[in-house]
């Protein structure tokens, strides 16, 4: 597998173009269709054991709410400067109102969101506690969601909203977390665009013919039905995923092993991890990869250039706990830092 030292020469030669692409992110227009989730973090100090039951009593200190799931993907695009439209379902509940407000505060167009009062806004509430002068630790997570699909009318309404916005954007991104957005009418609608990028945790074949797929290693293994343990397995998986999806490119993200890019013409390119020492939390890093990659493709980048910038963006957000985003300035600073690393 390629090491950074041997990769740096290629990176340095491409640096002017990569800086140009980062600077151009604000020119891109993207529609993100996704399972919109609100992440909540409630923290407090543990006071004692309850007399009612053998459970901790926590005195509440703070509540933090952030976009999660497909909403984190949406937020990543906005933070990178793109013009963003979002499509998906929210309920009339307070959590849905919070997410819509978060989107609108950073200039995201929410007109393609469909309200579904029969299903709650997907919400993941993490309760964490700490003793005095100790580390805060998560104790329990409470999920609010429906296992029922939206009714047929809502599916068709969302598909119609997507179709209405397709002509106004350079790319469509599918952020599929398996929470009911991507029904057959919606998938048919997103595939109507000629630049559709798919980030899904399972069932890649449903998006047959999309432009780019970005599975991580476990998702790729589930899709092909075997473990990817060796370099030969990886090459085989890339070929099988291309056959399965009929996509133009498959980008398998492999954590500390970097990324591998497979093209329909048989070309395979490997990109090393840019950050292997300061990894605190990989939550949501895939959303960041997709955002930087998509914006690059909108500007005419090669798939290799786009994957490199996706890798660069991910190397920044994994240094932070929880779902996180990055910016153009942070990406340029990180790229400059890589160019100055001793080979």
Structural class: alpha/beta
Overall body shape: globular
Distance between the termini: 17 Å
Number of strands: 13
Low-pLDDT ranges: none
The DSSP helix count reads 10
Q: What profile does the largest beta sheet have? A: 9 strands, mixed
- Oligomeric description of these chains: single chain
Provide mean pLDDT, rounded.
91
Report helical residue fraction. 25-40%
Hey, roughly how much beta strand do the residues contain? Answer: 25-35%
Radius of gyration of CA atoms, rounded to a whole number: 21 Å
- The side-by-side strand order for the widest beta sheet comes to 5-4-1-8-9-10-11-12-13
**H/E series:** HEEEHEHEEEHEHEEHHEEEHHH
